[in-house]
């Protein structure tokens, strides 16, 4: 087979010396014929399958469909495992390990005789981790997520992953739902393979991958149990071989224009706040200048068009039937960079020409949006000098401008020990403040920012309060929750200095978050502040993480990973 394109694999398999003999002969122990080593594109299928990651537990079958496409297009597919990050089970938080998984993907791609890669992911952090790793290597790469699970069902009601779990849990605590009914709902909550069926972080990051141009158009919302997910897997396998021949590398897709498209799309779908730290980190690996302020600049005027939980009513299965992400992007096309290149070799504008909406109850029009101007808002003030964020589409409008007395919790253990105490001095006008839950404080920046309300508040019929932390929240969560406050408390940010009774002013419209305490008083408090100590996390990866993790406004990546190393071929191994 004549080679007319740049490939890496001949550096392993194209030699006639001792090392070439070793590389080929060991691969032949699985019955592979000579002509597989003739220079055809070798495609690595990076698979985050794991039985400990329920969202990704079907990816072995998806990989088989990808392989069919690779073989059909004249490529040589080789599947390999990567670290897998399962949101439902891993402690203290999968975010602690996102960077580690990205390193696994990066080093595996570079160290092996691969010319291109298919990134199989699904659960929240597996998607950004794989994009970060692939961007660092910059070989031809295409992503395919496992898809959302089918709509949850329980006694005639529709259940959304996470969102309805939080709601039902609060109903139990408020005394309006029995514990037995709460437990019974488990059986219908997750009734098929796939990731969360709400527009949580998994669906958001799948949508981000598609809007960035890294996934075939229309793939993000296909339910995991739908046969069309496997059709797209087959097509993805075909396409990556073509991408290698076209030398269509990641950097040609992940442009600044692509990130602008992703930020605007995230606002239009009511996507997760977690997209902020992930897009910042992916851009950093791709060498694209992206700042926290860009989310406000590009997203501020965007309308939310998707009536999906947690911001709305419907679920991802309904979203797909209504036209999916292409329908939303077509609706906002005048605000997108339509000349951005995508992995199918076409521009975004070309991909959106045939997009249509089939259900206006699920996907609204620009003329009549579901929620106007609901892009993620970036807040600043003396409580968040480097920024904090809030998701207006999931917040209570009446609380978007609020002044209240701080009720402070030093860490998540302090919160759970006291928040339901009848003696806690709190009412619905207060502001709940959680410290030491950021990148270094937890560590890992766990999804604990969506603090449950005290029972005494719930029993009044109140379902939302202003909450502020340096943590993240689940993409399936909702409420007037200020997140990602930077600098975080654990590094001595102003959040560390808040005391019970301090007055806090939130003004989302003005993008302000202020602590009504004088600079002199804050300076006095700072002299008495002591950094938290993680006695059990002083070695191995945790030590590396604590020493090198960046703050939320920088994407929570490691300082030494910003900017990629490329697809250079390492020294031989013998």
Task: Please explain how this structure is put together.
This protein is an alpha/beta fold and 574 residues long. The chain folds into two domains: 41-150 and 192-352, Rossmann fold (3-Layer(aba) Sandwich), CATH 3.40.50; 377-537 and 545-552, Glucose Oxidase, domain 1 (3-Layer(bba) Sandwich). Helix content is 33%, strand content 13%. The chain has helices spanning 10-13, 18-27, 59-72, 98-111, 126-137, 163-174, 179-184, 186-189, 201-211, 227-246, 256-269, 274-286, 292-299, 316-321, 324-331, 348-352, 412-418, 455-458, 519-528, 540-548; strands spanning 42-47, 76-81, 116-121, 141-145, 152-154, 157-159, 377-381, 384-390, 401-409, 431-434, 466-469, 481-486, 503-507, 512-515. The strands form three sheets. Strands 7-8-12-11-10-9-13-14 form an eight-stranded mixed beta sheet. Strands 2-1-3-4 form a four-stranded parallel beta sheet, with helices on both faces. Strand 7 and strand 8 (384-390) form a beta hairpin.
Annotation keywords:
alpha/beta, Rossmann fold, Glucose Oxidase, domain 1, 8-stranded mixed β-sheet, 2 domains, about 35% helix, 14 strands, about 575 residues
């Amino acid at each position: 087979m004549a080679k007319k394109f740049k490939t890496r694999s001949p550096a392993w398999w194209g030699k006639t010396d001792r090392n070439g003999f070793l590389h080929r002969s060991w691969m032949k122990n699985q019955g592979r014929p000579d002509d597989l080593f003739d220079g055809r594109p070798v495609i690595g299928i990076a698979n985050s399958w794991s039985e400990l990651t329920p969202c990704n537990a079907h990816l072995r079958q998806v990989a088989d469909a990808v392989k069919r496409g690779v073989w059909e297009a004249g490529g040589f597919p080789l599947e390999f495992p990567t670290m897998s990050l399962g949101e439902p089970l891993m402690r203290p938080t999968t975010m602690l390990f996102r960077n580690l998984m990205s390193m696994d993907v990066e080093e595996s791609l570079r160290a092996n005789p691969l010319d291109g890669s298919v990134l199989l992911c699904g659960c929240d952090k597996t998607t950004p981790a794989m994009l970060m790793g692939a961007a660092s290597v910059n070989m031809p790469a295409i992503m395919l997520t496992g898809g959302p699970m089918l709509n949850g069902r329980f006694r005639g009601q529709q259940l959304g992953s996470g969102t309805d779990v939080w709601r039902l849990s609060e109903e139990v605590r408020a005394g309006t739902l029995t514990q037995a009914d709460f437990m019974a709902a488990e059986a219908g909550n997750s009734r098929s393979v796939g990731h969360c069926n709400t527009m949580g972080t998994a669906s958001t990051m799948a949508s981000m991958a598609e809007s960035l141009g890294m996934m075939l158009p229309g793939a993000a919302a296909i339910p995991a149990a739908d046969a069309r997910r496997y059709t797209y897997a087959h097509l993805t396998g075909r396409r990556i071989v073509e991408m290698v021949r076209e030398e269509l590398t990641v950097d040609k897709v992940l442009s600044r224009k692509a990130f602008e498209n992703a930020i605007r799309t995230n606002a239009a779908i009511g996507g997760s706040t977690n997209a902020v730290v992930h897009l910042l980190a992916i851009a950093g690996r791709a060498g694209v200048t992206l700042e926290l302020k860009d989310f406000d600049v590009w997203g501020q005027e965007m309308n939310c068009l998707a009536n999906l939980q947690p911001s709305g009513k419907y679920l991802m299965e309904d979203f797909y039937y209504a036209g999916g992400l292409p329908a939303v992007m077509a609706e906002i096309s005048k605000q997108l960079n339509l000349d951005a290149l995508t992995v199918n070799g076409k521009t975004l504008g070309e991909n959106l020409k045939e997009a249509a909406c089939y259900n206006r109850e699920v996907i609204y029009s620009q003329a009549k949006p579901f929620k106007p101007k609901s892009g993620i808002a970036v807040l600043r003030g003396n409580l968040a000098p480097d920024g904090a964020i809030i998701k207006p589409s999931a917040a209570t409008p009446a609380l978007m401008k609020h002044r209240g007395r701080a009720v402070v919790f030093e860490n998540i253990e302090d919160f759970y020990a006291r928040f339901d105490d009848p003696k806690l001095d709190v009412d619905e006008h207060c502001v709940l403040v959680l410290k030491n839950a950021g990148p270094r404080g937890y560590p890992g920046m766990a999804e604990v920012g969506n603090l449950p309300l005290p029972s005494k508040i719930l029993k009044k019929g109140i379902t939302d309060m202003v909450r502020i932390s340096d943590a993240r929240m689940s993409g399936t969560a909702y409420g007037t929750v200020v997140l990602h406050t930077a600098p975080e408390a654990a590094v001595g940010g102003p959040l560390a200095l808040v005391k019970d009774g301090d007055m806090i002013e939130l003004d989302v419209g003005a993008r302000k978050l202020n602590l009504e305490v004088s600079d002199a008083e804050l300076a006095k408090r700072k002299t008495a502040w002591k950094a938290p100590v993680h006695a059990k996390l002083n070695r191995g990866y945790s030590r590396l993480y604590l020493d090198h993790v960046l703050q939320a406004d920088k994407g929570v990546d490691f300082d030494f990973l910003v900017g990629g190393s490329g697809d250079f071929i390492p020294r031989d191994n013998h």
